[in-house]
Amino acid sequence: IDCLRYYAGWADKIQGATIPVRGDYFTYTRREPVGVVGQIIPWNFPALMVAWKWGPALAAGCTIVMKPAEQTPLTCLRMARLAQKAGIPDGVINVIPGYGPTAGAALTKHPGVDKIAFTGEGSTAKIIQRAALETMKRVTFELGGKSPNVVFADADLDAAVAGAHFGLYFNQGQCCCAGSRLFVEEKVHDEFVDRLKSMNHDRKLGDPFDPETEQGPQIDKAQFDKILEYVEHGKKDGAKLVTGGKRHGDKGYYIEPTLFTGVQDNMKIATDEIFGPVLSVLKFKNVDEIVQRANKTNFGLAAAVWSRDIAKAHKLAAGIRAGTVWINCYDVFDAGAPFGGFKESGLGRELGEAGLQAYTETKTVTVSLT
């Protein structure tokens, strides 16, 4: 709701500019809708992703064809029905459930679609980008990450432990910006791990409709199996399994909150996006090494720094190549703050004015004054 309200406020504020030029001419620019936009969203936050995509597109004056993830189509269909009841004209918002290789591919290739906005895996984005080149469609991608979460010894450890725990285990770890690489300064490493271990043991797994539940199941069997396969990689590579690492109960795709220590930068659990409740703890000695290690990844979606030394935190925020850096907090979002990735974590931005501009084209108009 917050996101939709934010972009509703932009609808009458999209404007061009007048430009001083040489000669007897008057030149101005217009921001015009890009046209028909194809939007492909993932399964991990089906309602939120609808708002993030519809808000800027509608404010810019575009029409929408959305393909929800095949695992979670009903949320999008319900929201489209609500939009219709709210007065959105027929044909402005269209939903086409289906699979990526069929419905998604058709949307990407269709000559009547002017832009594709995709949130999901990088491998799928590369397929979309190649297909979009055939008709020079505009594209924006919000992709995966392997976000570094850096904790210094001078941090407020109570806040840092809570933030690190939430930053990874929120939504069963199925979050693109999950702080899955937890760098902890050597001086406080053991204490920090002990606190995380205690929180994992106390975590309540169960029915996601129960208000007391803190962690539900993974989305499906494929994701469940993939996560447990990464757990095995971690053990084989020599990381120490502190908690979890196995199925919880005998029904449903529940995985115990998993915590590894002794993780090295080149281990698969430290390089690959797992998209599950698996936290890797990496030890570091001082500030001089951490920027290089934090950036030792193909991803660049998000990062966090925990320290009472704000000057040091700002220095790291400048040095880490990520689209969002949180200082002494994690997973703080606002509809007005742009979100997106460096490197293989995406192209363009969601949210904020930058997210709106991605749904517009700039037209230059020049008038002779003679």
Short structural summary:
The chain is built from twelve helices and 16 strands. It has helices at 2-8, 46-60, 73-85, 100-109, 122-133, 157-169, 189-202, 221-236, 268-271, 287-294, 310-319, 352-357, and strands at 18-19, 25-33, 36-40, 63-67, 93-95, 115-119, 138-142, 148-151, 181-185, 240-243, 258-261, 278-284, 302-306, 324-327, 346-347, 360-368.
CATH homologous superfamily assignment of the largest domain: Aldehyde Dehydrogenase, Chain A, domain 2
Q: How many strand segments?
A: 16
Structural class: alpha/beta
The level 1 CATH classification of the largest domain is Alpha Beta
Q: Considering DSSP H and I runs of 4 or more, what fraction of the residues is helical?
A: 25-40%
Could you spell the SSE succession in H and E letters? HEEEHEHEHEHEEHEHHEEHEHEHEEHE
User: How would you write the strand order of the largest sheet?
Assistant: 10-11-12-9-8-13-14
Average of the residue pLDDT scores: 98
Strand content: 15-25%
Which architecture of the largest domain does the CATH hierarchy give at level 2? 3-Layer(aba) Sandwich
What global shape is seen? globular
Tell me the CATH topology of the largest domain: Aldehyde Dehydrogenase, Chain A, domain 2
Head-to-tail CA distance between termini: 50 Å
* Tally of alpha and pi helices: 12
Sequence stretches where pLDDT stays below 50 over 5 or more residues: none
Radius of gyration: 22 Å
